[in-house]
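A favour, since you know our C-alpha coordinates better than I do. Go ahead and set the record down below.
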Amino acid sequence: MRTTICQNSATVRDGCVNEHFGALLSHTSRMLRRAMDTRIAAEVTPELTGVRGMLLGEIICANNENRDVYQRDVEQWFHIRRSSVTAILQGMEQDGFITRCSVEKDARLKRLAATPKGVAYHDRIRASIDRFEQDLQQGLTPEEMAAARVVLNQILHNAQSIEAEVKQSTPERSNETC
Protein backbone atom coordinates (compact mmCIF):
# COMPACT_ATOMS: atom_id res chain seq x y z
CA MET A 1 0.00 0.00 0.00
CA ARG A 2 1.37 3.41 -0.99
CA THR A 3 1.27 6.13 1.63
CA THR A 4 1.17 9.68 0.32
CA ILE A 5 2.24 12.50 2.59
CA CYS A 6 0.24 15.58 1.62
CA GLN A 7 -1.35 18.49 3.40
CA ASN A 8 -4.91 18.19 2.14
CA SER A 9 -7.22 15.63 0.58
CA ALA A 10 -7.29 17.33 -2.85
CA THR A 11 -3.59 16.74 -3.31
CA VAL A 12 -3.89 13.11 -2.23
CA ARG A 13 -6.18 12.47 -5.20
CA ASP A 14 -3.66 14.22 -7.47
CA GLY A 15 -0.74 12.28 -6.01
CA CYS A 16 0.76 15.44 -4.47
CA VAL A 17 1.26 17.18 -7.83
CA ASN A 18 -0.27 20.36 -6.42
CA GLU A 19 2.08 20.37 -3.45
CA HIS A 20 5.35 18.86 -4.70
CA PHE A 21 6.95 20.39 -7.77
CA GLY A 22 8.95 17.23 -8.48
CA ALA A 23 5.73 15.19 -8.52
CA LEU A 24 4.22 17.56 -11.08
CA LEU A 25 7.32 17.29 -13.28
CA SER A 26 7.31 13.51 -12.99
CA HIS A 27 3.60 13.32 -13.83
CA THR A 28 4.12 15.67 -16.79
CA SER A 29 7.03 13.59 -18.07
CA ARG A 30 5.02 10.37 -17.94
CA MET A 31 2.05 12.03 -19.66
CA LEU A 32 4.30 13.40 -22.42
CA ARG A 33 5.78 9.96 -23.01
CA ARG A 34 2.37 8.29 -23.14
CA ALA A 35 0.93 10.95 -25.46
CA MET A 36 3.87 10.70 -27.85
CA ASP A 37 3.72 6.89 -27.80
CA THR A 38 0.01 7.05 -28.61
CA ARG A 39 0.60 9.53 -31.44
CA ILE A 40 3.43 7.48 -33.00
CA ALA A 41 1.46 4.23 -32.70
CA ALA A 42 -1.62 5.78 -34.34
CA GLU A 43 0.10 7.78 -37.09
CA VAL A 44 3.13 5.65 -37.90
CA THR A 45 3.06 2.08 -36.57
CA PRO A 46 2.20 0.38 -33.28
CA GLU A 47 5.66 -1.24 -33.43
CA LEU A 48 7.27 2.06 -32.43
CA THR A 49 7.11 4.28 -29.37
CA GLY A 50 8.11 7.93 -29.22
CA VAL A 51 11.57 7.09 -27.84
CA ARG A 52 12.11 4.35 -30.42
CA GLY A 53 11.02 6.74 -33.18
CA MET A 54 13.35 9.50 -32.00
CA LEU A 55 16.20 7.00 -31.63
CA LEU A 56 15.60 5.66 -35.12
CA GLY A 57 15.76 9.23 -36.43
CA GLU A 58 19.09 9.82 -34.67
CA ILE A 59 20.53 6.59 -36.07
CA ILE A 60 19.38 7.46 -39.60
CA CYS A 61 20.87 10.97 -39.35
CA ALA A 62 24.19 9.55 -38.13
CA ASN A 63 24.17 6.90 -40.88
CA ASN A 64 23.46 9.58 -43.50
CA GLU A 65 26.46 11.56 -42.20
CA ASN A 66 28.63 8.41 -42.32
CA ARG A 67 29.05 8.48 -38.53
CA ASP A 68 29.16 5.24 -36.60
CA VAL A 69 26.63 4.91 -33.79
CA TYR A 70 27.05 2.58 -30.82
CA GLN A 71 24.97 1.71 -27.78
CA ARG A 72 27.02 4.03 -25.57
CA ASP A 73 26.07 6.93 -27.89
CA VAL A 74 22.39 6.17 -27.33
CA GLU A 75 22.96 6.06 -23.56
CA GLN A 76 24.47 9.54 -23.72
CA TRP A 77 21.90 11.03 -26.12
CA PHE A 78 18.88 9.93 -24.13
CA HIS A 79 20.46 9.88 -20.65
CA ILE A 80 19.24 6.38 -19.93
CA ARG A 81 20.91 3.33 -18.42
CA ARG A 82 22.66 0.62 -20.40
CA SER A 83 20.04 -2.03 -19.52
CA SER A 84 17.23 0.21 -20.80
CA VAL A 85 19.09 0.94 -24.03
CA THR A 86 19.79 -2.77 -24.50
CA ALA A 87 16.07 -3.59 -24.19
CA ILE A 88 15.08 -0.79 -26.61
CA LEU A 89 17.68 -1.81 -29.19
CA GLN A 90 16.80 -5.51 -28.93
CA GLY A 91 13.15 -4.67 -29.56
CA MET A 92 13.99 -2.44 -32.51
CA GLU A 93 16.22 -5.14 -33.97
CA GLN A 94 13.57 -7.85 -33.50
CA ASP A 95 10.98 -5.61 -35.18
CA GLY A 96 13.32 -5.05 -38.14
CA PHE A 97 14.04 -1.31 -37.70
CA ILE A 98 17.78 -1.57 -37.03
CA THR A 99 20.69 -3.99 -37.21
CA ARG A 100 23.62 -4.31 -34.84
CA CYS A 101 26.84 -5.22 -36.62
CA SER A 102 30.14 -6.23 -35.04
CA VAL A 103 33.06 -3.89 -35.57
CA GLU A 104 36.40 -5.25 -36.81
CA LYS A 105 38.57 -3.30 -34.36
CA ASP A 106 36.54 -4.41 -31.29
CA ALA A 107 34.16 -7.36 -31.42
CA ARG A 108 32.44 -6.14 -28.25
CA LEU A 109 31.19 -3.02 -30.06
CA LYS A 110 28.06 -3.24 -32.16
CA ARG A 111 27.51 -0.53 -34.76
CA LEU A 112 23.86 0.48 -35.15
CA ALA A 113 22.38 0.90 -38.60
CA ALA A 114 18.85 1.52 -39.82
CA THR A 115 17.31 -1.15 -42.01
CA PRO A 116 15.34 -0.33 -45.17
CA LYS A 117 12.18 -0.76 -43.05
CA GLY A 118 13.50 1.79 -40.54
CA VAL A 119 14.41 4.25 -43.26
CA ALA A 120 10.97 3.83 -44.86
CA TYR A 121 9.28 4.97 -41.63
CA HIS A 122 11.65 7.89 -41.00
CA ASP A 123 9.69 10.67 -42.76
CA ARG A 124 6.40 9.63 -41.12
CA ILE A 125 8.05 9.52 -37.69
CA ARG A 126 9.62 12.97 -38.17
CA ALA A 127 6.29 14.45 -39.32
CA SER A 128 4.43 12.88 -36.38
CA ILE A 129 6.97 14.17 -33.84
CA ASP A 130 6.86 17.65 -35.43
CA ARG A 131 3.04 17.70 -35.15
CA PHE A 132 3.29 16.50 -31.55
CA GLU A 133 5.69 19.36 -30.71
CA GLN A 134 3.37 21.90 -32.36
CA ASP A 135 0.35 20.56 -30.49
CA LEU A 136 2.31 20.53 -27.24
CA GLN A 137 3.18 24.21 -27.60
CA GLN A 138 -0.35 25.26 -28.57
CA GLY A 139 -1.50 28.30 -26.59
CA LEU A 140 2.01 29.24 -25.47
CA THR A 141 3.78 32.37 -26.65
CA PRO A 142 7.42 32.27 -27.78
CA GLU A 143 8.27 34.17 -24.59
CA GLU A 144 6.52 31.56 -22.44
CA MET A 145 8.35 28.77 -24.26
CA ALA A 146 11.69 30.53 -23.71
CA ALA A 147 10.90 31.05 -20.02
CA ALA A 148 9.87 27.39 -19.67
CA ARG A 149 13.19 26.28 -21.21
CA VAL A 150 15.14 28.44 -18.77
CA VAL A 151 13.19 27.12 -15.78
CA LEU A 152 13.37 23.48 -16.89
CA ASN A 153 17.11 23.72 -17.60
CA GLN A 154 17.67 25.16 -14.12
CA ILE A 155 15.59 22.38 -12.54
CA LEU A 156 17.57 19.82 -14.54
CA HIS A 157 20.83 21.37 -13.33
CA ASN A 158 19.58 21.35 -9.73
CA ALA A 159 18.56 17.70 -9.96
CA GLN A 160 21.94 16.75 -11.45
CA SER A 161 23.70 18.63 -8.65
CA ILE A 162 21.62 16.85 -6.00
CA GLU A 163 22.41 13.47 -7.52
CA ALA A 164 26.14 14.21 -7.74
CA GLU A 165 26.22 15.54 -4.18
CA VAL A 166 24.44 12.51 -2.77
CA LYS A 167 26.63 10.08 -4.73
CA GLN A 168 29.73 11.87 -3.52
CA SER A 169 28.69 11.87 0.14
CA THR A 170 27.27 8.33 0.24
CA PRO A 171 29.80 5.56 0.83
CA GLU A 172 29.65 2.75 -1.68
CA ARG A 173 27.92 -0.34 -0.43
CA SER A 174 30.10 -3.33 -0.05
CA ASN A 175 29.07 -6.79 -1.21
CA GLU A 176 30.82 -8.26 1.80
CA THR A 177 28.77 -9.90 4.50
CA CYS A 178 29.69 -9.78 8.17
The first helix runs from residue 9 to 13. The mean pLDDT is 87. The first strand starts at residue 98 and ends at 103.
